[in-house]
Every structure is written in structure tokens, then in C-alpha cells.
Amino acid sequence: MGYKGEKDKLGKHEQSFLELMNVPRTESKLRVFSSRLQFNAQVSCLRKSLNIVNSAVEQLGNALNQGTARGSAIGFRLDSLPKLADTLARNNRMTLMHYISKVLADKLPEVLDFSKDLSSLEPAAKAYNDLADYCGVPQLAKKLNQILVQLINTVLPRLKTRISSLN
Q: Of 153, 131, 152, 129, nearest to 140 (Cα)?
């Protein structure tokens, strides 16, 4: 495939590349190595973005719990919010969400103007929406899938040969 001259006349780098040409499945091994090098950077990127989202959720939970014993709580479970709209009063006309809104409007009307407090969630929402593309998660998954397919395609024939030689 390549060089047929004297190896001693080549430089160190050229000799290294010449040896690299003799390594089986070099391309797939280099892809694995490249993915491994990029993995920590991608995880770091994901971690930063998820920390932004987590911080926003904590801030929202603390705002909702402000003035209570749980004022410094980490947050709340998001799956509990729809339950407020599903829980009906005895007359079946008012939900717990309606009741909470009415009490807040009567007692703490300034709390109902929470939309201005949600501006801190905007960076988190953007980070969440752009997370996969920004960190290259789809590309990483595609690369890993290609590597897996190539490994399967190289290992399966060997296994079949070994199994048939055992029979």
C-alpha cells in the first residue's frame, strides 16, 4: 500500500506513520481515541449547562417557599405542579390552583407578579434547549454508534470463524 524504500532514511514521524499503517482497524481505533479525548470536554460542557438549569430550579423553589420553614429548600418536584390543577374542592368548581391564586391575590398580590422573577430562568431555558447541539451530544452518539457497528462487523466474522472451527 505504501512506501517500499529503506525505513532508516525516513524521519521519526514518517516511520511512526508507516508503522501506524500496519495496525489493524487503525481508523476505528483513532475514532475511539478521538471520542475519548473529546468526551471529558463534552461532559464538562453538559455539567455547566445542567448546573445553570439546576440553579434556576432552586431559585424558583426558594421563591415559592419564601417566608416558610422551607424558604431555603432546594426546590420542589415538578410533577407536583399539575396536581394543583387536578385537585378539586368539594363543590367541584374550584381547583387547588384556583384557591391558591385567590388567596395570593387577596393576601400577597405582589407575588402574582412573578413573571418578572422568571427572567432568571431565561438563560437556563436557553441552555436546556441548546444543550445537545451546543455540546455535540448527537455527534458523539453518532460516532459511538459508528464505532460500535464497525467493531461488531469486525468481531462477528472472527467469532463465526472460531465457532465453526470448534465444530
A: 131
